[in-house]
Amino acid sequence: MGSDQKVRRVGFRHGMSKYMVHSCQLLAISDTWVCKLLNTLDHFQLPLHAFVASRTSNMASNTSLGLDLESIWSLSTLTHVLVAILGYHLCLSIYRIWFHPLSGIPGPWYMAASHLPEFYYDVLLGGKLFHAIDAVHEKYGPVVRISPREVHFDDVDMISILYPLSGRKTNKPIDIGKRTGTPDSLVATVDHDDHRRRRNAMSAFFSNNSIRRLEPIMQERLRKLLIRIRDHGDDKPMVMHPVFRACTNDVITTYAFGSCFNLLEEPTFGEPYFKSCDILFRLEHVFGSFFWLADLFHHMPLWLVPWLVPEMRLLVEKQQWWIDRVREIRDHPDREARSKSTILEGVITGRLVDKDLTDKRLVAEAQLLIFAGEGTTAHSLVAAVYHVLTNPPIFDTLKEELTAAIPDDKALPTFQQIETLPFLNAVIQETVRLHPGVIARQVRISPDTPIAYKDKYVIPPGTMYSMSPSTTHLTAAEFGPDPYVFRPQRWIENPKISQAFLGFARGSRNCVGMNLARKEMAMILATLFRKYDLAGKGRKTEKGRPTMALYDTERKRDIDPASDYIIPIPQKGSQGLRVVFGH
Ligand code: HEM
């Protein structure tokens, strides 16, 4: 185990003991509170009966006593209701720990007993369950029960069994739709067969051949990106996340609808809009814990949302734009004859059934495409730039490869030039391993077939099970003794390690946009690192050559995930990756 990983592990252990203490405190507090309440009520019972009896005898002569009696009765009813609720939860917890079909799976009793730990880590602490899960694996082994109804794995040998490409049905729980507010989008589709039909309508747009049509669109955006960087001014730190997010948003919106918001041209790179979207991500765990709240929120009319949450106005405006575009395509009299150059045109005119073509589902699909296609790739791009700039030997190897492939440093790269560059591809793969743009657990359900774990345990059909890239990518033996270290060469030395890679998920529900994500990353990284030289301590730069260097950016604070809100979020107060350019 490398020293960095040890540090991380010790950090986890420390974090875990802290979390355990917190959860025990929480349970203890609620327990004490409940005991106190019961004692008080118990204590109250006898005097209450005596009081009721004495008052009842006087009732006929004093009408005001009727009111007292009512409040007394309601108090007594409340006592019974509370005791019944507590009794029910106690029995349920006992059942879940000792008699549930998952009771033999290792894991802490409090996670088996209730959803309270999930609520505590994800809602109260803010997206921290993923750290707690790592610590639970460390203590209980590669298969653990992390909630009354979910089993989590950290075993590379299970990947092909848990995430098959074909051969058995793979469902998803309704949770994902509730959390994201897109219950009928592809990623949240519960039923296996519905998913296959919807995925087929979209997947052709993401083949390597299909995305070739995006080359001029990407090049045009890259030209704009370079202009914005030049105009930003020399030696002035540039916050890169919104810049990359604007770039990826423009590309995916154009591909989905045929036009975009030109966020790269906005002075703020669309940051206020992104902040507006992030509120939805921040609500994810709250909605996951309170489905009724999710339903209430997602069923309210669109105009009411900014009225209740003014910060979401910009997102609602974009949602209205998506709705208008979807209706325009779907309700076009000559729908079938329309060209199918955009994803939405393809989806709408594809072989779908009526229930797939409702306003609600199509807008959810549009929202999924935009959200899945922008922040994810931008997050990984930020991490890639950080690692290349902090590792001069990696920068030099990449520069050498790019210089050979793209002889003219004033020209933008073409798809053909960057397609087969082993080191650039290794940089991308290593980045997504350490910094996947989707950090959420990859949850699935096998609806009909039980899943066996090495003759030890059987996961019954209908059970939620999951794996997480943030766990497996730091523990799998495939990644050697230094899994926390950014070392692209590992992918060139041993390509077989890809069998432990979960960055884009695996199986029939893996990331449909991964070719696009890889291509966007390759084009943006090739453009930046071909044009700019690395400046900094001990680096000799040629006079007149453009340079780039990191500005006050730390891995733990600004790059590593501190919270899981589907997308990874860095520590509070972080400004993310900042870079200074010189021209
Ligand atoms: C580095 C960038 C990206 C990463 C790390 C990533 C990762 C993932 C992962 C892990 C999933 C599976 C989620 C689950 O198990 O529930 C997924 C699904 C998906 N991704 Fe990506 N993604 C990236 C970029 C993109 C891009 C550019 C698009 C383009 C629109 C995209 C579209 C989708 C869609 C539509 C799904 C749902 C697929 C399905 O359920 O069949 N992703 N992505």
Characteristic terms for this protein:
four-stranded mixed beta sheet, 583 residues
Produce the secondary structure layout.
Blueprint: H1 3-58, H2 64-99, H3 109-113, H4 116-124, H5 129-140, E1 143-147, E2 150-153, H6 159-162, H7 175-180, H8 192-203, H9 215-232, E3 238-239, H10 240-257, H11 271-282, H12 284-289, H13 291-299, H14 304-308, H15 313-330, H16 343-348, H17 359-390, H18 392-405, H19 415-419, H20 422-434, E4 442-445, E5 451-453, E6 457-459, E7 464-467, H21 469-475, H22 489-493, H23 514-531, E8 533-534, E9 547-550, H24 555-559, E10 563-565, E11 567-569, E12 578-582
Helix pairs in contact: 1-2, 1-5, 9-10, 9-23, 10-17, 15-17, 17-18, 17-20, 17-23
Bound molecules: protoporphyrin IX containing FE.
Could you explain how this protein is built, in words?
Its cofactor is heme. The protein is built from 24 helices and twelve strands. It has 583 residues and is α+β, with helices and mostly antiparallel strands. The protein has a four-stranded mixed β-sheet with strand order 1-2-7-4. It has a four-stranded mixed β-sheet with strand order 3-12-9-8. The two termini are 42 Å apart. The relative contact order is 0.12. Protoporphyrin IX containing FE is lined by residues 186-187, 199, 252, 368-369, 372-373, 376-377, 380, 432, 436-438, 442, 503-505, 509, 511-513, 516-517. Protoporphyrin IX containing FE binds next to α17 and α23.
